[in-house]
Amino acid sequence: MAAITPASLFLQSRPRLSRQSLATTRISSLKSVSISNQKSLSLRLWPLQSCFRVHCAAKPDTVEKVCKIVRKQLALPEDSSVTGESKFVALGADSLDTVEIVMALEEEFGISVEEESAQSITTVQDAADLIEKLAEKKGA
C-alpha cells in the first residue's frame, strides 16, 4: 500500500505471514523516489505539481545496453560514468548526437522511434524505457 501527498510519501508493505512485521518507510520533502522489489518491479515517482506520475523503469540489462551505445556514439571512455540518470546534454551530446544515438538504438533493438517520442528522450533511462515500451508493442 502507498499513500502519497505532495510533500511526503508513506509506504507500507503488508506481511505475507502473520509472523512478519510491517515494513514502513516515510520520505518527507519528496522530490523523487525509486522503489523496487525483488521481482524486478521498479517504480519511480516524480512530483508533478500537486500530484505524482508513476513510471515503470526498464530492465537493468536494457539500461546497460543503452549506456554502452551512448558511450560509443559520444566516444566516451569505457570507464566513464554513464547511468540511467545521465542526461545526454551533461554527457556532451548536441542535437545531432542525440539523433545519432536514437538511430543506433533503433538499429540495435529493431524498433522505430517516432520523431515526437525521440524529442522527449533526455536521459539514458528515458531511452531505455521507450525501447521497452516499443519492443512490447512490436511483440504484441
TrEMBL record:
It is found in: Plastid, Chloroplast. The lineage of its organism: Eukaryota, Viridiplantae, Streptophyta, Embryophyta, Tracheophyta. InterPro entries: ACP (IPR003231), ACP-like_sf (IPR036736), ACP_chloroplastic (IPR044813), PKS_PP-bd (IPR020806), PP-bd_ACP (IPR009081), Ppantetheine_attach_site (IPR006162). GO terms for molecular function: acyl carrier activity; phosphopantetheine binding. One of its GO terms (cellular component) is chloroplast. Residues 60-135 form the Carrier domain. This is Acyl carrier protein. Keywords: Chloroplast, Fatty acid biosynthesis, Fatty acid metabolism, Lipid biosynthesis, Lipid metabolism, Phosphopantetheine, Phosphoprotein, Plastid, Transit peptide. Carrier of the growing fatty acid chain in fatty acid biosynthesis. It comes from Davidia involucrata. SUPFAM superfamilies: ACP-like (SSF47336). Coiled coil: none annotated.
